[in-house]
């Protein structure tokens, strides 16, 4: 850690007061002190991870799953939810401790999360889809068995029908 104490680590250590709404062995969720809207929740790991990219895959999945669960609870008292967090050097995330913002939305709340759409040609889109898709890692523990789609000839429809129990009627 740097010389400056991390405010989120201080919350974890009980050195900063906060309005907690959720806590488990890995994460804390609390009301943001300077909310974008009333009910704005921040969710962060107890361990000082700088970004989701530094987290073990299992923990990152837990983190995002929990974000979704909290978003659902917020949606009960709002008209929508925006979930934001950024990771990596090129982002505006200047905080040293990974935080997800879960913001309740109300019609006419005038919040903007805007960007100017970029023009990307079809060829480049294809390449992007391929390279990102090829880099998706499987979960560490419960690796799903992905079946390869093959053009094999299976049993004919008639053969399958013979195996079905005969109807009496
Ligand atoms: Zn920290």
Tell me what the structure shows.
The chain is of the alpha+beta class. The chain has a domain of 99 residues: 2-Layer Sandwich (HIT family, subunit A), CATH 3.30.428.10. The protein is 27% helix and 15% strand. The chain has four helices and five strands; from the N terminus they run H-E-E-E-H-E-E-H-H. The protein has a five-stranded antiparallel beta sheet, with helices on one face. The longest helix is centred in the middle third of the chain and has 19 residues. The structure holds zinc ion (ZN). Zinc ion (ZN) binds next to helix 1.
Range of helix content: 25-40%
Radius of gyration of CA atoms, rounded to a whole number: 23 Å
Percent of residues in beta strands?
5-15%
User: Which CATH first-tier class of the domain at 7-105 would you pick?
Assistant: Alpha Beta
Question: Mean pLDDT score, rounded?
Answer: 84
Largest sheet: 5 strands, antiparallel
What's the order of the H and E elements? HEEEHEEHH
Question: Which molecules other than protein and nucleic acid are bound?
Answer: zinc ion
- Looking at the structure, the CATH topology of the domain at 7-105 is HIT family, subunit A
Tally of helical runs: 4
Order of adjacent strands in the largest pleated sheet: 1-2-3-5-4
């Amino acid at each position: 850690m740097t010389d400056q104490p991390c405010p989120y680590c201080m919350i974890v250590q009980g050195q900063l007061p906060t309005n907690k709404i959720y806590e488990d062995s890995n994460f804390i969720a609390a009301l943001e002190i300077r909310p974008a809207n009333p009910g704005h929740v921040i969710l962060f790991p107890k361990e000082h991870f700088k970004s989701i990219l530094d987290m073990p895959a299992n923990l990152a999945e837990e983190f995002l799953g929990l974000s979704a669960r909290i978003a659902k609870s917020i949606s009960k008292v709002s008209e929508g939810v925006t979930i934001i967090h950024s990771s990596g050097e090129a982002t505006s995330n200047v905080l040293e401790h990974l935080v997800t913002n879960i913001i309740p939305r109300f019609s006419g709340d005038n919040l903007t999360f805007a960007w100017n759409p970029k023009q990307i040609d079809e060829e480049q889109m294809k390449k992007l889809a391929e390279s990102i898709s090829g880099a998706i890692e499987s979960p560490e523990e419960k690796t799903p068995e992905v079946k390869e789609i093959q053009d094999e000839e299976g049993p004919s429809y008639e053969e399958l029908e013979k195996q079905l129990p005969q109807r009496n009627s």
